[in-house]
Design a protein that fits this description.
Pfam family, one: PALP
Order of helices and strands: EHHEHEHHEHEHEHEHHEHEHHEHHHEH
Helix content: 40-55%
CATH topology of the largest domain: Rossmann fold
Domain Tryptophan synthase beta chain-like PALP: 38-340
Organism: Salinicoccus kekensis
Protein name: Diaminopropionate ammonia-lyase
CATH architecture of the largest domain: 3-Layer(aba) Sandwich
Number of strands: 11
Oligomer: single chain
Number of helices: 17
Distance between the termini: 21 Å
GO biological process, one term: alpha-amino acid metabolic process
């Protein structure tokens, strides 16, 4: 496990890059999701025995495996971005419109095709969003995509196309196909000239933090001292960091970003002299399929560069440990079913708190018996074969 402190953190840049995630925008996303008949807040668990065994003051986990029946959080971003698309057609402010309003609008226009590239969870979210809005979906998956991830897309009525490329090249291919065929590209990573939809997707993710804030109640979001966020392209982590920053009045908890060692572009970007984003090439072979991304989103990276405190590159064994800790908890803590990408933050936390090799990092981050830590389990057992294998080990 390797780590680097963020030398680029800047309050001025945080104010600049977090502008798209104002309180009004965050509230607008939460308002839209609450209007959906499929909506129900996901649980926030306090792992009291887990906190005690790790030497922490408190440990909370937001369990996104229950979101919309999709076994992952991605439906939040896809549904909100599609809502903004239809609001734009109506020339209306999407924040004031309900799901019913937008569904009526979608029904009044010719059916469109929403396309995306995915490692699995995002594609399922887009397929689901297209389904509930009565649209078509085309989902491109990289070479080696698990059959169950392909089936999850087709079960929702979308077409799944498995390429012979890695994730980042598949993203480029999906963009080319969308442009050629007049499809709406619903991608969760941004690049020059393509930022509006990725930012809308990120805004949709912020409903997670809105719910956590309400669920913490008297503990309050301001009482959280640390949050550990897993990152692929950085859109999820960037959205969480922006929401935490703005909902705490610019006084967020210590933000720790964790990535798989085989696909750690944010960690590598933080290690540069200039702070420019760095792309990782190759197969990026990791069990954390949802985080196996080589090209960081510039929107997510800019937010994290300005707000995160530390970037960590972790081996797959760290994620495996987190899966087992979630699934076989201490004492009376609730069991949480977490896939490889969802479990990485807990695995990291356990390594830092219990292994003397990381005592310096533990001290630098101020993790101790007074720390109140927040984790977000972003997925359930999206790859059941791997999940069973890890839990039997």
């Amino acid at each position: 496990m390797k780590w680097i402190q963020n030398k680029f953190k800047s309050t001025a840049d945080a104010e600049n890059y977090n502008g798209d995630f104002s309180l009004q925008e965050i509230q607008g996303a939460a308002h839209f999701h609450a209007s959906m008949p499929q909506y129900e807040p996901t649980p926030l668990h306090e792992l009291k025995n887990g906190a005690q065994s790790l030497g922490l003051g408190a440990l909370f986990v937001k369990d996104e495996s229950a979101r919309f029946g999709l076994n992952a959080f991605k439906g939040l971003g896809a549904s909100y971005a599609m809502a903004q698309h239809f609001a734009g057609k109506m020339v209306r402010d999407g924040q004031s419109l309900s799901f019913t309003d937008l569904l009526d609008a979608a029904d009044s226009y010719p059916v469109e095709t929403f396309a995306t590239a995915t490692e699995g969870n995002h594609g399922k979210g887009v397929a689901w969003g297209a389904h509930i809005f009565g649209q078509k979906g085309k989902v491109f998956l990289p070479d080696g995509a698990a059959k169950i991830r392909v089936q999850a897309v087709t079960d929702l009525g979308a077409e799944a196309i498995v390429t012979d490329m890695n994730y980042d090249d598949t993203v480029q291919y999906a963009a080319q196909e969308a442009a050629k065929n007049g499809w709406i590209l619903m991608q969760d990573t941004a690049w020059e000239g393509y930022t509006e939809i990725p930012v809308d997707i990120m805004k949709g993710y912020t409903t997670i933090i809105s719910e956590i804030r309400a669920q913490l109640g008297q503990n309050s979001l301001e009482g959280i001292s640390h949050v550990v966020l897993q990152a692929g392209v950085g859109s999820f982590a960037g959205a969480m960091a922006a929401a935490l920053y703005n909902l705490t009045g610019g006084r967020p908890p210590t933000i720790i970003i964790v990535e798989p060692a085989a696909a750690d572009p944010l960690y590598r970007s933080a290690g540069t002299e200039t702070g420019d984003p760095v792309r990782v090439y190759g197969d990026m072979d990791t069990t954390m399929a949802g985080l196996s991304c080589g090209a960081p989103s510039p929107v997510g990276w800019n937010i994290l560069k300005a707000t995160a405190d530390c970037f960590v590159s972790c081996g797959d064994a760290v994620s495996d440990r987190g899966m087992r800790l979630y699934g076989k908890p201490d004492g009376g803590d609730p069991a949480v079913t977490s896939g490889a990408s969802g479990a990485l933050p807990l695995g990291f936390l356990a390594e830092v708190m219990t292994d003397e090799r990381f005592s310096e990092l533990k001290e630098d981050l101020g993790l101790d018996e007074s720390s109140k830590v927040l984790l977000i389990n972003t997925e359930g057992d999206t790859d059941p074969v791997h999940y069973k294998k890890v839990m039997k080990a």
